Amino acid sequence: MMLEVRNLGVWFGNRQVVAIDALDLDRGQVLGIVGETGSGKSMTAYAIAGLAPGMGARVEGSVKLNGRELIGLSDHQLRDIRGRQIAMIFQAPISSLNPVFRVGDMFLRALRLHGASKAEARERAGIAMRSVALSPDLLHRYPHQLSGGQAQRVAIAMAVALRAEVLIADEPTSALDVTVQAEILEVLQKLRAEESLAALFISHDLAVVAGICDTVAIMHDGEVVERGPVAQTLRHPKHPYTRELLAAVPHLGSPGASDA
Amino acid sequence: MLEVRDLVVRYGPVVAVDGVSLSVPPGPAGLGLVGESGSGKTTIGRTIVRLTVPTSGEVTLNGVGAFRARRSALKAYRKSVQIVFQDPDSTLDPKMRVGAAITEALRAHAIVDRAGSRGRVIELLTSVGLQPEHADRLPHQLSGGQRQRVAIARALAVEPRLLVLDEPTSALDVTVQARVLELIARLRDERSLAYLLISHNLAVVEQLCEQIAVLYLGQVVEQGNARRVLAHPAHPYTRALRAAVPELSEELPRPATRRAEPPDPAHPPSGCRFHPRCPIAIDRCRHERPTLREVGGRLAACHRAEESLADGSNPGP
């Protein structure tokens, strides 16, 4: 197993916001973490990425990446892992990008920091841009000159260029229009197939999760109430909360549509 | 009842709304306005409640013009048309108790005196599914769904004929959204309310509106019965929107648009504005702007609408 989470607890003061017994993620797999506001899904992602302590949280338990324990590592060690092994993208893509640098310079800085030569960095940036279906010409732009969908693809391309093993995506398409969302999901799907990218996909949208994830964990009040293969879990939900969530999703073409 | 005629709203070089005509019949009725960022849907809603001044065109409610009425008629207009925003916190003063916030709306339109207001507040809270004791709460003591119910109660306080609902459930969790949608449907039927529902969520519009207008870059591209339009779109943009909605299945939606640079609203494409992203565009689409015309029982602005409808399953060129 590439990523193994065991007995993960996240605390703010004496309030526990995450209590997860186990989560597993294998190479080339996408694990969806679904829940509503306050379910702890984002904090779970931050804890796995090593970002929770910086937010004032206390993290307990074990997060192993390729057998190496991440909990308890120093900031310095974690930064190294976040650059190279774990990449994170956020709901607002622009927040992953530095507004004062051209996109290409961001790639160059990040790649050179991880030991690539200038020529090599240029080449890898171009390849990464093409892998997310963007023209390498966009490397000359500043983040504010990108649309939301382009910015999110640049953030994903950065993860590709750094050859991250795990992508943690926190509501990566929730702020985007649905036609743009479809494009981003297509890109993620392709990367998973071609690059064996593994991803934690945090979302409130069950339909998106159904399409892109292999396995799913449903969170409620900080705990995983149900988990399993995505098709089975969403088609035959066992936990009443999963059923409630599924029942609440409005469907197109459902018999309940307006006749008024 | 509400008529929007040839509405144009310009912000500097950007034409946010470019010649839109819509009508909402008297309640109980709902018109859904859908489209993506930059489509102009929010601007239309804001213009109807007079938060934005149109560059040209008309908005009338039962013949009273929103921007040309005399003072007394204008007062009646403002009372008749109310808006509910996506974020209830933008409507509610964080330091004002719920009861006081609703009373403020009642008194602004001189609907009740001080003595009569308490009873009316409780009646309104009950009608949106809240308890009388919520009147004494501050907004932060309520959940997001409860705050949106308060915003709805406050809009209803002046007994409007038309509600503009601008993404009313988009900031809410899905279980909360389901209950607020039920509330809107119930209010429509009980109060014979008409509403304009602005939403990016096609399923929400289908559930709550019998009519739909699909906007792209400030123009209506398709308009008609919501079920018909969504089940059998005549415009390739409606089809792309429809196809991009993920369903609870293992199949991901396939992008049904051609990938192109997102359109720049300050320099909209020539001809049909959708042509750079359209999978079935022909040469004519680049030069000639399609007019909104009747095709297959709805209005559509596409040169190839007939072919799209005839070949519903496979919109190839």
Question: Your description of this structure?
Answer:
The complex is a heterodimer of chains A (260) and B (317). In chain A, 45% of the residues are buried. The model of chain A has no long low-confidence stretch (mean pLDDT 91). Chain A contains nine helices and ten strands. Helix content of chain A is 37%, strand content 25%. Helix content of chain B is 34%, strand content 22%. Chain B has helices at residues 41-48, 71-80, 98-108, 114-127, 144-156, 174-191, 202-208, 226-231, 236-244, 283-287, 305-310, and strands at 2-11, 14-24, 29-34, 56-61, 64-65, 81-84, 162-166, 194-199, 211-216, 219-225, 293-295, 298-300. The longest helix of chain B has 18 residues, at 174-191. The interface between A and B is large, with 44 and 51 residues.
Q: Gist?
A:
With 260 residues, chain A is of the alpha/beta class. Chain A contains nine helices and ten strands.
The SSE order of chain B reads EEEHEEHEHHHEHEHEEHHHEEH
Rg of chain A (CA only): 19 Å
The topology string of helices and strands of chain A comes to EEEHEEHEHHHEHEHEEHH
Uncertain spans of chain B: none
- Percent in helix of chain B: 25-40%
Approximate helicity band of chain A? 25-40%
Strand order of the largest sheet of chain A: 6-7-8-3-9-10
Strand order of the largest sheet of chain B: 6-7-8-3-9-10-12-11
Spatial gap, N to C terminus of chain B: 41 Å
The end-to-end distance of chain A, rounded to whole angstroms, is 53 Å
**Principal-axis shape of chain A:** globular
Percent of sequence in beta strands of chain A:
15-25%
How big is the Rg of chain B? 21 Å
